[in-house]
Amino acid sequence: MEEVVAISHVAFEDLGTLGVELTRRAVAVEWVDATTADFSVLDATSPGLVVILGGPIGVYEIEAYPFLREEIEFIRRRLEARRPTLGICLGAQLMAQARGAQVYPGARGKEIGWGAVMPETTMSADAAFCRLLAEAPSMFHFHGDTFDLPAGARRLASSSRYPNQAYAIDDYALGLQFHPEVTADALERWYVGHACELAAEKVDIMALRKAGRELAPKLEQAALRFWRSWIDQLPLSRKLK
Asked: CA 197 to CA 191: how far, in whole Å?
């Protein structure tokens, strides 16, 4: 059975519905805490799938967070080997940086809360992703940074504020700026973990929670269907079944 490695930056930003799908397939997940891991000894190519999750820091803050340098190099080796890789939010930004693209604070401010993500008009080959956006027309966003489209990537979706919301590199890598993995219950941990940032941005927690309770259930079901389709099409040597 293929091994899945999940790289985390804060404990409460987890696999969410992707974890539910991996559990359904009886797939074991090895967790790597990016902040304390020794990436130099980690095998970048052997895991069937590597998932790089979100976090509240900037890719460009390497002096403050030196582990980012090794993490980016690990991701670079992974992508260079064309091995299945998924990046969510910070993870997508790290993948872009590893492919030589620039990551920087967004000029249009932070995108926090629920909002639409629009598919590119040339996406007929990405039917599963199009279905996800059609079935869950409002996605959860929590980012202030954005990035240029990395080399060799095709843009899959944009929002009214930032153009690069999702991209794919051939059939083996997917970067998502938004969070399709979240659930209404798990978001309660986000409200606490990101309390200072939410307060600084004057986000109404009660309104954010209300929106999550209304919108997350539809996203949860749509995301489960998407993860199933997406995993099935990955170029794996042994299928995650």
From this structure: 10
Q: Which two tokens stand for residue 32?
A: 């790597």
Three-class secondary structure of residue 187 per DSSP: helix
- Show the tokens assigned to 107: 């000029």
How many other C-beta atoms lie within 10 A of the C-beta of residue 65? 17
Give dist(CA 160, CA 118) in Å, integer.
Answer: 8
Token pair of 156 as six digits:
């899959």
Contact yes or no for 141/104 (Cβ under 8 A): no
Task: Provide the residue-wise pLDDT of the chain in tens; the chain has 241 residues.
Answer: 479 999 999 999 999 999 999 999 999 999 999 999 999 999 999 999 999 999 999 999 999 999 999 999 999 999 999 999 999 999 999 999 999 999 999 999 999 999 999 998 765 568 899 999 999 999 999 999 999 999 999 999 999 999 999 999 999 999 999 999 999 999 999 999 999 999 999 999 999 999 999 999 999 999 999 999 999 999 886 777 6
Query: In terms of C-beta density within 10 A (0-12 exposed, 13-18 middle, 19 or more buried), how is residue 96 classed?
Result: buried
The pTM score is 0.96
Owner of token pair 């309390």:
195
Query: Would you tell me the crossing angle of helices 205-232 and 16-24 to the nearest 10 degrees?
Result: 40
Contact between 14 and 186 (Cβ < 8 Å):
yes
